[in-house]
């Protein structure tokens, strides 16, 4: 899980090209959720040390908000690449702005298995056989 998170945040920081597997997106989302809970718990603990648990929760939430601002580009990048995997444009992310059904539709797309084989946005990220084929085509001298 940590490897997926490092891949999204550090290696593909603002990469909006290519495709992302479901596991890449959902591991990133899980890590974001774990960090939210961690920041809130640490804030509550710090707040209780200073006799203000509610203030500590607020501090933890504010720290997470600043962290979220710092990871806006990686989050958008992984969502766009995930949409590319199901054959949709990154602009399709705005479907979530439709009240009610938009967010549900986007969630369904994020949970859907990607297109098998190459699509308009690049090769299938699940296809590990391309590397094997390249190794098999190396000519010996």
Quick gist of this model?
The chain is mainly alpha-helical and 141 residues long. The chain contains six helices and no strands.
Q: Between the first and last Cα atoms, what is the distance in angstroms?
A: 41 Å
Alpha-beta content class = mainly alpha
Quote the beta fraction: under 5%
Number of domains: 1
- What's the helix count? 6
> What share of the residues lie within helices?
55-70%
Number of strands: 0
Principal-axes geometry comes out as: elongated
Rounded radius of gyration (Å): 19 Å
Low-confidence stretches are 131-136
| Mean pLDDT over the residues | 80
The string of secondary-structure elements, in order, is HHHHHH
Largest sheet: none
Could you outline the blueprint of secondary structure elements for this entry?
Layout: H1 2-11, H2 22-49, H3 53-70, H4 72-85, H5 101-111, H6 129-136
Protein described:
63% of the residues lie in helices and 0% in strands. With 141 residues, it is mainly alpha-helical. Helix 2 runs antiparallel to helix 3 (53-70) and helix 2 (22-49) runs antiparallel to helix 4. The protein has one domain (2-133). It has helices spanning 2-11, 22-49, 53-70, 72-85, 101-111, 129-136. The chain has six helices and no strands.
């Amino acid at each position: 899980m940590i490897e997926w998170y490092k891949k999204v945040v550090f290696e593909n920081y603002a990469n909006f090209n290519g495709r992302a597997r479901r596991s890449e997106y959902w591991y990133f989302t899980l890590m974001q959720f774990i960090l939210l809970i961690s920041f809130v718990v640490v804030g509550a603990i710090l707040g209780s040390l200073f006799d203000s648990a509610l203030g500590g929760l607020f501090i933890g939430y504010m720290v997470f908000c600043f962290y979220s601002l710092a990871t806006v580009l990686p989050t958008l990048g992984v969502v766009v690449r995930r949409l590319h995997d199901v054959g949709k444009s990154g602009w399709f992310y705005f479907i979530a702005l439709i009240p009610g059904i938009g967010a549900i539709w986007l969630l369904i797309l994020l949970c859907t298995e990607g297109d098998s084989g190459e699509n308009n946005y690049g090769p299938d990220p699940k296809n590990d056989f391309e590397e094997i084929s390249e190794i098999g085509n190396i000519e010996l001298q």
